[in-house]
Design a protein that fits this description.
Layout (H helix, E strand, L loop, with lengths): L1 H39 L5 H19 L1 H9 L11 H25 L5 H16 L7 H34 L4 H26 L11 H25 L4 H6 L3 H42 L14 H16 L1 H9 L6 H21 L5 H14 L8 H33 L1
Helix pairs in contact: 1-2, 1-4, 1-10, 1-11, 1-12, 1-13, 2-10, 2-11, 3-10, 4-5, 4-10, 4-15, 5-15, 6-13, 6-14, 7-8, 7-10, 7-13, 10-11, 10-13, 13-14
Length: 421
Amino acid sequence: MDIIANYGTTLVLVAALFGFLMAWGIGANDVANAMGTSVGTKSLTIRQAIIIAMIFEFAGAYLAGGEVTATIRNGIIDSNAFVDSPDLLVLGMIASLLAAGAWLILASYFGWPVSTTHSIIGAIVGFAVVSIGPEAVQWSKFGGIVGSWVITPAISGVIAYFMFISVQKLIFNTDDPLNNAKRYVPFYMFLTALVICLVTIKKGLTHVGLHLSDGEGILLSIAISIAVAFAGWIYIRGQKYNPQDDCKMHFANVEKVFGILMVITACAMAFAHGSNDVANAIGPLSAVASIVASGGEISSQAAIAWWILPLGGIGIVIGLATMGEKVMATVGTGITHLTPSRGFAAQLATAATVVIASGTGLPISTTQTLVGAVMGVGLARGIAALNLGVLRNIVVSWIITLPAGAILAIAIFYVLQACFS
């Protein structure tokens, strides 16, 4: 308690710095989940992807990032175990932010698409075990979160598989693929817009003071989605398509139509990613700020300070712009060959899965969700379409990340104790 009383402001500033570093790492590593498929299919250039992600990652973090934050802050460890020693919780959360952020930046430097959720949860569990003991960890909730890391890739893979199968049956395996693409792609635009609007209107806008009933939110989401689909229909009809392009690359004109859709799914994925993964940075930071502000009192419910969500959003954007390119290349081109139609199926499935998880407050791994979706698209063409060597390396990096976060957090926790004792 003396540490909080004597160094409260310093602790919050250090936590903010390390929280920003963690958000930087999230932007540098997990940007591939939002933008890798768009760049890999050449629907967007890297510069365009960064601009789109800057807007929608920040919007997702700021508007819809609060629900998952509550789970990260209160759900992984039993806060009651730290009631008599809140200083340990504060130092541990700060250590977790630095440990996870450092690991993510290192992984991004080498182009490894690791899980930010693995990093921070492993770090939190690591410091909790050495500071209080295994009883400080809510193992039942931890087990549920670990289970979600298996379930969500499966869910996104199944959605992506059937989404791409529907594209094949409705468009590619027909006598007139181009006209069918013009006919059905606006419907896919409607689905994509609906996914993003539902979470934005029904949940996200509560953070800026706009509260709508369920019925109002659904009706407004449908109306906006219809408008997006209609605008897409007009745009697609107005484009010029050269039949000679199909001679150079089969279905080139159809893929051109899907390239338009990839821009919309990129926006949806960036928003969904920002809403879910910002919690990995601001959850521990929010815990530190609320404990220090209350003079050491640990409460189960604490308001998120106004400056924390923007800090996480800005950190994600800067990390994306400065270090995101390597991981983007790994995910966009390494797992399987992606075309705009395949990338669309993977992105929409990932966005839908992440938005569902974010709405229920379950912190999933966006990396694993996307890989599951890309695998689903690849399996729709047969297992030979997958680069199993790259997949093996990705899985190994996932396995390493959890203990790496824990070990780094433990070491940093002891250093912080020595500095502030």
